[in-house]
Amino acid sequence: MTIHVLPPHVARLIAAGEVVSRPLDVVRELIENALDAGATRLEVDLEGGGLGLVRVRDNGSGIPAASAGLAARRHATSKLAPDAASVDAVTTLGFRGEALWAAAQAGEVQLVTRPAAQVGACEVRACGDEVEVSRTSAPAGTTVTVRRLFAALPGRLRTQAPAAAEVREVTALLGRYVLHHPGLYWRLCVDGDVRLTHAPGDHRGAVASVYGPLSANRVLTVVAGGVRGVVSRPELTRARRDRMHFSVNGRPILAPPELERAVIEGFAELLPAGAAPLCVLDLTVAPEDHNPNVHPAKQVVALADLPGVAARVRLAVAAALAAHPLARAAPALLAPPEAGREEAAQGTFPALTLLGVYQELYLLAQGEGDLWIVDAHAAHERALFEHLTRTLEAEPPAELPEPELLHLTPEQTARLHERAAALQGWGLTLEDFGAGLARLRTVPATLAALGVPRLHEQIVEAALGDHPDPRRDVLARLACAPALKAGMLDHARGKAVLRALGACEHPWACPHGRPTVLRLSERDLAHSFGRRGVRDVPRGRDAAPR
């Protein structure tokens, strides 16, 4: 499509503020242009933190000679039709036609471009509103160089971050594009030193390029309706959410909290409280169902159906986790286990044979050629939780002989007004009685049968707590109380626990996120004992195909 200048009434619709306020903005805008041009190879060079030079070289479609002179004019773009309706269905990363114009206002721009079918290239030099076009020779693609950024704007220059800080931000930005466009070649060079390279691959390879091979070996593939990418196994978590990355239609975004929560909810009890996974998720929505024009840097997009997209993300993450064994490796005995080894790709819990009981709490079992250590309390708790979940609504709720009055905090009272109908839907009838009291009339029959101290108080506390899923919180709390404790375990109960755990839908963690089993391969034992005999061969998970 040839470049044209947008009419004023269309330009007003997309005006969203200043485009270039730092070198990072120049890099982002030029990368978006290269991606929109269909580039498969992108090389970025910085000098002086980007204030001295920013250069982005690509092998994309290039700009025809007839349009090259318009490239540095404001609101001149080939990515948006000159009619108002096109603003509501943006399909490209760039669309405002301000990138090169804004860079020319802040520095000196040189653009060399040639479509593959064109003989000879065009060179465009722009500074401020002055534009010069000449002919030159160059390979197919486009190279944009911006020099002496803010040299003519001393007030802006004095407020720039130190070069090292800007390089850090540019490196992080390029890493995000690598994660969301892993099938391309990327290179970042800073003052002649290569800082980041990525060869074309998949999302796992992109994670390896950005975060290293150890992280890449601990991610699972996510492929579900409109959601693609990777998510880390439960053992790879962080206290912060800084490695949760999302893109919408190829555009890396600052994710709304709803999407981050959807990923964490997809883990359910597999993720400890306060922990966040690593994830790289590419979301696809219809062009008319998102608006990328709500932020000057286009890092924030508005989604027409954010709850629906969040639900798709939650289901996709849960499905990816359910398809893999999630037993955590036992701690190393002497030497750390081999890095990069993956477990068997299966979603079922193996048949375990009980070998013994340790400290009246842990079960030692054998399965798939490995030694398994089972936390009997966590395993029993998981089995009880799933039993309560299945039977919660199987019978009519049990009506109390006499309604019970319970004291509520103001926060609990507010939550009761929000949740009363939902609680009653699964058998818990709780009515505001005024003066900080609530009247409990019915409880689910399967919960009423539990011999748990302060049963009603615990049910109400969990149902009106700050957990986003009160139903799950109630069942998790009540599954913990009757579960086997230390000192209560014997061989017969151990066998029963293993049978119950094997029948669970999600046997790998208790409802609160603690692992139920640890796994130690014979190979790890042999290496720790220094054995090199005939039995030192891959077995169990070590023999699984990679």
From TrEMBL:
Transmembrane segments: none
Keywords: DNA damage, DNA repair
InterPro entries named in the record: DNA_mismatch_repair_CS, DNA_mismatch_repair_MutL, DNA_mismatch_S5_2-like, HATPase_C_sf, HATPase_dom, MutL/Mlh/PMS, MutL/Mlh/Pms-like, MutL_C
Keyword DNA repair set for record: yes
Residue ranges annotated for the MutL C-terminal dimerisation domain, each copy included: 354-490
Positions in coiled-coil regions: none
SUPFAM superfamilies per UniProt: ATPase domain of HSP90 chaperone/DNA topoisomerase II/histidine kinase, DNA mismatch repair protein MutL, Ribosomal protein S5 domain 2-like
Domain DNA mismatch repair protein S5: 207-322
Organism superkingdom: Bacteria
Function in brief: This protein is involved in the repair of mismatches in DNA. It is required for dam-dependent methyl-directed DNA mismatch repair. May act as a 'molecular matchmaker', a protein that promotes the formation of a stable complex between two or more DNA-binding proteins in an ATP-dependent manner without itself being part of a final effector complex.
Protein family membership: Belongs to the DNA mismatch repair MutL/HexB family.
HAMAP family: DNA_mis_repair
Name of this chain's protein: DNA mismatch repair protein MutL
